[in-house]
Amino acid sequence: MYGLSEKQFHLFFQRADNQKGITGTNLLVILERRLDNVVYRMGFVNSRTQGRHFVRHNHFLVNGKKVNIPSYLVKIGDAVEVREKSRKIQALEDSLDAVVRRGIPQWLDLEKENLKGIVKGFPSREDLTIPIQEQLIVELYSK
Fold it and tell me: Which of 2, 5, 20, 97 is deepest in the core (most CB within 10 A)?
């Protein structure tokens, strides 16, 4: 679903396991914080795969700096925006028109006219409507 290799996923699981709290919820929160997912959730792109592609091709800035690493984890208060040179890309404009149907999560804030979004907080398990049974993932990787 997030387009990760087994090795990447295992590293994210280990990071989630080392944090305080419920490992499964921690894992989902970490996966949601990835830059390629955040640009998808903000509505700049139509899929996580397209988000990964656009991030890799330097179309986004985080706090005014170029970031081309899809696995970059955003923090609270980070501003994610489309680069000035990339604002005329038709795929980005089409995606922003379609975001009305999909909606934007509560933990993100979008300034559609400025092509900028701000991370207001981290998602809680209730915010994530993805049909995942994270407990099964935890049981598999805990072996």
Answer: 2
